[in-house]
Amino acid sequence: MPTPEQFGRSTLFYPLVGVLVGALLMVVGELLVNVHLLLQAALLLALWVMISGALHLDGLADTADAWVGGLGDRERTLAIMKDPRCGPVAVVTLVVVLLLKFAALTALLGNHQYWALLLAPWLGRCALPLLFLTTGYARPGGLGQALADHLPRRAMPWMLAGNAALMVLVGLPGMLAVAVTLVLFVWLRRRLIARLGGTTGDTAGAMVELIECAVLVALAV
User: Dihedral of CA 177/179/185/187: which sign?
Assistant: First the structure.
């Protein structure tokens, strides 16, 4: 098993993981260019979910259940988040987010905007180290505690700034995607601090999914 220090250093490579995921989606999208548009979007979305093992979707589902069922109470919210059962709010949230992703993918692929397939997972995984860098961990002893405690804090800002600069070089789509991500990140972070006093692994996963969805929708509109 990795040491806590290795867990912390791994955050420097999260954006690279996003780039690899996006590059794979772009390649597969090109290979499926002659497939019916709706089927092409569905296959890409299924692949996207499979790559991460639905890990971030699980975090989104847990966060949605806890946010509504927690009734504004921190301890109640954290307790519900640990419950492995999936409530109706989680199901509805997953359906809505996946439906929005599917619709956005259909529009983007129809206009041959393949850059979106790279930018969405890339930005989603840039948001994770930024979240852990700027936000305390809300659940002492949680799975992400070691990661949060051993972040490479000196190297992290340079890594994030470098990734942002590369995205801007993509042009208008890159600049729009970065802007949407920053606005959503600031809003979500404020909500997490107000309710939990920090973040958890589940809320971090939820942020990835919501940012990916927002970037796709913004680029498709």
Answer: negative
From CA 173, how far away is CA 200, in angstroms rounded? Answer: 30
Single out the residue of 180, 178, 207 nearest to residue 192, CA to CA.
Answer: 207
Residue pLDDT, tens place only, 194-213: 999 999 999 999 999 999 99
Q: Count of alpha carbons within 13 Å of 186, Cβ hemisphere only?
A: 5
Q: What is the C-alpha separation between 125 and 21, in angstroms, rounded?
A: 10
Amino acid type, 9: R
Of residues 89, 64, 86, the one with CA closest to residue 77: 64
What tokens were used for 170? Answer: 């993509």
Both tokens of 72, joined, read 């504004």
125-144: pLDDT as tens digits: 999 999 999 999 988 766 67
pLDDT tens digit string along 62-90? 999 999 999 899 999 999 998 888 899 99
Task: Please tell me whether the overall predicted TM-score, pTM, comes out greater than 0.90 for this model.
Answer: yes
Q: Which residue has the tokens 């920053």?
A: 182
Backbone angles phi, psi at 137, to 5 degrees: -90, 130
Which of 24, 30, 15 has the alpha carbon at shortest distance from 48? 24
99: tokens are: 């439906």
Count of residues making up the chain: 221
Q: Which domain holds residue 73?
A: 4-220
Average pLDDT over residues 208-220: 98
Q: Is 195 helix (H, G, I), strand (E, B) or coil?
A: helix
What is the number of structural domains in the chain?
A: 1
